[in-house]
TrEMBL record:
<dbReference type="InterPro" id="IPR000572">
    <property type="entry name" value="OxRdtase_Mopterin-bd_dom"/>
</dbReference>
<protein>
    <submittedName>
        <fullName>Oxidoreductase, molybdopterin binding</fullName>
    </submittedName>
</protein>
<dbReference type="Pfam" id="PF00174">
    <property type="entry name" value="Oxidored_molyb"/>
</dbReference>
<dbReference type="InterPro" id="IPR036374">
    <property type="entry name" value="OxRdtase_Mopterin-bd_sf"/>
</dbReference>
<feature type="region of interest" description="Disordered">
    <location>
        <begin position="1"/>
        <end position="22"/>
    </location>
</feature>
<feature type="domain" description="Oxidoreductase molybdopterin-binding">
    <location>
        <begin position="35"/>
        <end position="179"/>
    </location>
</feature>
Amino acid sequence: MGIVSPGFSGRPRSQEPALPPGQYLTEDFPVLSAGPTPRVSLDTWEFVISAENGTEYRWSWQELMALPQETPMVDIHCVTHWSKLGTTWQGVSLDTLLDGVDTGAHFALAHSYGGYTTNLPLDDLRGGRAWVAHTFDGAPLPAEHGGPARLLVPHLYFWKSAKWVRGIRLKTMDEPGFWETAGYHDYGDPWREQRYQGD
């Protein structure tokens, strides 16, 4: 017995993909960085979650790779107006990394090798919406795109997906990161076109 009702064929797909306002579609993967590209050895790389009480949870590269891996296919949207659809990644869900972390925090500040930071509500890193990604399109993530690993938070503008991520500090109060201090929006929802403070 079939599970699809007779005559049901789904909704017709539009010829033009739905894009957030102000975005254009690209087949490329533009490289945008505020400074030099860090080159991080896998032998010294680590990811650290720091709870608000000072407790630290650490993973080496080998330990990260031993965790359950996921392969999200997601659309990504840059604040500079390009969108790339159907990108394929591999990485570890933040749900997996946060499992067992004792925290009452509501905010997170991501830290990167090279000094970059960006702030996010902790809820936006949970619920299958964020990963520490190390593979793009079936290959190790290149350094220019944030390798060996970057944060992947595709429902927000891509500056929130911090390149060269090395850890997350859990916080009870929100703290703006690098671009947010420079005037970018604290949240960065592309569908609400939250590019800059006041949007």
